[in-house]
Amino acid sequence: MEAWSEYSRFLIALFAILTPFAAIPIFLGMTEGRTREQRNAIAQSAVLTVATVLVSSVFLGDAVLTVLGTSLASFRVGGGIVLLLIALSLLNATVSAVKHTVQEADEAGQRTAIGVVPLGLPLLAGPGSISAVIIEAQRGHGWEHFAILVGCILAVCAGLLATLRLAVPIGNKLGQTGLNIMNRLTGLLLAAVAVEIIAAGLRALFPGWMT
What we know:
Elements: H1 4-18, H2 20-30, H3 36-68, H4 72-91, H5 102-108, H6 115-124, H7 127-137, H8 143-165, H9 167-205
Helix pairs in contact: 1-7, 1-8, 2-9, 3-6, 3-7, 3-8, 4-7, 4-9
């Protein structure tokens, strides 16, 4: 089992990857004209989707790597690059196309279950968060390790649900400038995490070079 400091870092990193503050303007746009009860129902649906996808990734990550024939080191480098792209988009106060494309946004207006797709998947539980969970799951073994990871995911999902349920007052209070500042701070944190993941992968791939 990993040290508690490692789990704490994963908890913070996962919250940064999900970027709930970046999701607030999109959530408000998708739920425009809806009642408070309808917004809450969509938020719950989105968070349930996120929890299901990420918890599944904890237990299926090893199988995914085996099927793809990919080493953990290679997956770390690839996953780290995805996280770095998301971080750079946050530093520019935009939503990365890795998480959500213009075409998906257009289709969202025609969907009734927008909490599942595209809000829950892939906007929130996208390639970045799934990669981060799989990488962290491979760092340890045993039921205690997996139980703590699931607990971290559920804790982040609880914070995400609270953020989405309070999207209207948060959006009104912070305004677009305030949200952009939060996104840039989150992007800076996420960029540091991404570089660490990439460096760990490169050290494993090229042990003779990374000394």
